[in-house]
Amino acid sequence: MISEIAIDGPQKLLGKDGKTEFVIREVTMRDLNAVIEINRKVLPENYPPWFFVEHIEQYPKAFIVAEVGGKVVGYVMSRVEFGWSYVAKGKTAKKGHIVSVGVLPEARRLGIATAMMVRALKALKNYYDATEVYLEVRVSNTPAISLYEKLGFRVVGRIPRYYSDGEDAYIMARPL
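The structure corresponding to this sequence follows.
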């Protein structure tokens, strides 16, 4: 499925269950409330509305949503930063940052997160000229870590007490 992910326009895909169709596409401002609602439902780290708006306005090509039956069921929010490379130690890089990934429980295990991530990675490289990408993930979030490893990410660091509840985060990165 990874190679068939388009970089532009809405794209209809078939879920891993062989029957659920979903669409991945760039976010629009109309999706704001649905994205915030997903963030609040599935993630303990919640952002204020202005934070989502900023990412929609600045990095729309790498802010991807998924719909099932016309309802937004997931999102990947990304941005671009400059700083020390996680891939080429001692060098600076233009880095994509996967800020937040959320999929509603009823839409999980269909390949939606994978499809959104692949689309976001392609956009970070092709539209924003990022040379690598990184993210933070809870050390206990085995399903997410497994997904990111399948997409070529590797653990490159650990941040003690990164999350508000005191849990550590892995920094995972990969070249683009």
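The chain has a mean pLDDT of 95.
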